[in-house]
Write a structure and sequence with these properties.
By secondary structure, this protein is mainly α. It folds into two domains: about 220 residues, Fic-like fold, CATH 1.10.3290; about 60 residues, Winged helix-like DNA-binding domain superfamily/Winged helix DNA-binding domain (Arc Repressor Mutant, subunit A). The protein contains 14 helices and three strands. A three-stranded antiparallel β-sheet has the order 1-3-2, with helices on both faces. A hairpin with an 8-residue loop joins strand 2 and strand 3. The longest helix is centred in the last third of the chain and has 36 residues. The radius of gyration is 34 Å and the shape is elongated.
């Protein structure tokens, strides 16, 4: 007698299926789950774009320069005229423009140091209770670097005064490596005009890892020195006089260079007009003060030419005269319309030249 065929139903009258059938049935029932990954379209955005290589960066800036060749030639001509003007003028003009440029850059960098506070700090290390001495020191550094001395080409760390013994050795070494990388990229762009190369270096400053507190000031001053090239009179190219629109970031290299050239054009014209005014004032003051005897009038006139604002203690230190002699000459010049007191106070007064 044959054994009974195995029943397809268990004791609960449920169908008995093999493992493969159970798995297939389970997958068919799970309708709410997504399908296999290979069947799903890729809705994800592309991965992070790799940074362009140095060759691509340099090529972009070469194309930008070629596209603005005519405007670049015009700005280079204005800078050349300023260089010749400063080369033929008195030494005080260079310091005067450096101080004015540094004060304008301080507003761009967020320090907002006025010419009067800067003059007092530089001449006598005087600061008010509310003054930020670190900001004053940064702007003072800018004045020194814009006035002369070795440029950033050979040793960027020394130019930026980053060799602080308080810094850790590994941090200093890391910055030195980054500085070498930035200088190497600038050297690769040697065929670019100094003005274009300065613009490129300014906008690649943070990407090179050189940024820290005050880096906008450092980047601007370094670029100003690079743009001046081998100038004999103009140690730096004005960037912020008349506004710092050329220092704004954003956009492709062509747009950045266009803003850079426009801002430098305005700054050079502003500097030239300022020198015109101070030269005319010097001639008028020399004629007016001819009847005065002694060395004090001539020394005081030179100090007013070099500094946008001076106080009585500053004039006393510059001229070597007594406080009474300085105040007497300042009062005489103010009475004849050569200078004007700008603070309106009885103490801590400051004067500037009164141009036409």
């Amino acid at each position: 007698m044959k054994p009974p065929a195995p029943s397809l139903y268990d004791e609960y009258d449920a169908p008995i299926l093999d493992a493969e059938e159970v798995e297939q049935a389970s997958e068919n029932d799970l309708w709410f789950l997504p399908g296999p990954m290979e069947e799903e379209p890729d809705y994800l955005p592309p991965g992070p774009r790799a940074e362009p290589c140095e060759a691509e960066v340099l090529e972009d800036w070469r194309k930008a320069e070629a596209g603005h060749a005519a405007r670049l030639a015009c700005v280079a001509g204005r800078l050349g005229a300023l260089d010749d003007r400063l080369k033929r003028g008195p030494e005080g003009w260079r310091h005067r423009l450096a101080l004015i440029e540094a004060a304008h850059l301080s507003w761009f960098a967020g320090d907002r140091i006025g010419p009067d506070r800067l003059a007092l700090w530089l001449s006598m290390r005087l600061s008010g209770v509310q003054d930020d001495t670190a900001a004053l020191a940064r702007v003072g550094w800018a004045v020194r670097r814009l006035s002369g001395g070795p440029g950033p080409k050979m040793d960027l760390s020394a130019f930026l005064d980053r060799r602080d013994p308080e810094n850790l050795a590994d941090e200093a070494e890391l910055f030195a490596d980054r500085a070498v990388g930035w200088l190497d990229l600038m050297a690769q762009a040697s065929e670019l005009h100094p003005i274009s190369r300065a613009c490129m270096g300014f906008h690649l400053w943070s990407l090179a890892g050189l940024g820290q507190q005050g880096d906008r000031m450092e980047a601007s001053v370094t670029a100003a020195r690079v743009a001046a090239g081998e100038g004999k009179g103009a140690v730096f190219a004005p960037l912020a006089m008349g506004g710092a629109g050329g220092l704004r970031a954003g956009g492709p290299p062509a747009d950045r260079l266009a803003r850079w050239l426009e801002g430098m054009d305005v700054a050079c014209l502003t500097a030239m007009r300022h020198l015109d005014d101070i030269e005319a004032w010097s001639a008028r003051a020399e004629t007016e003060m001819a009847p005065l005897s002694g060395k004090t009038p001539r020394a005081l006139r030179a100090a007013l030419t070099e500094w946008p604002l001076i106080s009585a203690p500053m004039a006393e230190a510059f001229t070597g005269a007594s406080r009474a002699a300085v105040q007497r000459n300042l009062a005489w010049m103010e009475a004849r319309g050569l200078i004007r007191e700008v603070t309106g106070q009885g103490r801590y007064r400051m004067w500037r030249v009164l141009t036409a």
